Amino acid sequence: MSLIELREVSKRYGDHTLFENLSLSFDTGTIHLLVGKNGSGKTTLLKLCMNRIQTDSGSIYHQKKLKCRYMPDFVELPYVDRPFTFISWMLSIMRVPLDLKWLSELDIDMGSEVSNLSKGNKQKVLLYLSLVGSPDVVFMDEPFTALDDKTIKVVMKRIAYLQAQGTCMIISTHEIKLFSKLDVVIHALD
Ligand SMILES: Nc1ncnc2c1ncn2[C@@H]1O[C@H](COP(=O)(O)OP(=O)(O)OP(=O)(O)O)[C@@H](O)[C@H]1O
Predict the structure, then answer these.
(1) What does pLDDT average to in each consecutive run of 10 residues of the chain (190 residues)?
(2) CA–CA separation, 66 and 124 (whole Å)
(3) Whose CA is closest to 142, among 134, 152, 133?
(4) Which of 22, 34, 40 has most ligand 1 atoms within 8 Å of CB, for mutation?
């Protein structure tokens, strides 16, 4: 049985039909890339998969007790704490142990308040929390937009590691080339 299944899902906004009877399944250890032009429905499909928005018809099945993570394309992070305090607090809520090796690999600017971090460093904090531990499913919306080349390599290594551990990742991206060495399923939404 798949972790998540979409069965004949349709979604429209007004008279704009984004998906018509779409059926997809997401299994353990698979990477799915949602690709397509701006406005083609990548974020909408992610939100449907997460049950954050309603379908117009069709159904979405989630295996019970799935550990899911979501990395949105933008979040303000208005926290006065430094990254280490913020991350430790988030991990305690998530009930996931601190992984110092993964944290050091990302090389986050630990000296500034989270709210004052650069865009790339904020994205690193979100990536840390999305890819720490052993989630069953990770949803990521444009996770590479503010990252430098070195960080992209680190993140790709982590994604490959998690895939080997059995994590399913569903990623909206314009950067298909980054995944050329990985086994991925591409969903073209144009
Ligand atoms: N809540 C909403 N109400 C009305 N229309 C919406 C809503 N959310 C999204 N849309 C529309 O649905 C379409 C798909 O939007 P979506 O954000 O899923 O696209 P996307 O592929 O993620 O785009 P981008 O690459 O620009 O991030 C767009 O035309 C958008 O305007």
Answers:
(1) 96 96 97 96 97 96 96 90 97 97 98 96 97 98 96 98 98 96 94
(2) 24
(3) 152
(4) 40
Q: Do 189 and 34 touch, CB atoms closer than 8 A? A: yes
Q: For the chain, how many structural domains are there in total?
A: 1
Neighbours of 162 (CB within 10 A): 21
Pocket of ligand 1 (CB under 6 A): 13, 16, 18, 36, 38-44, 172
Range of the domain at 120: 4-188
CA of 36 to the centre of ligand 1 (A): 12
pLDDT for residue 144:
95
Residue 27: which CATH number?
A: 3.40.50.300
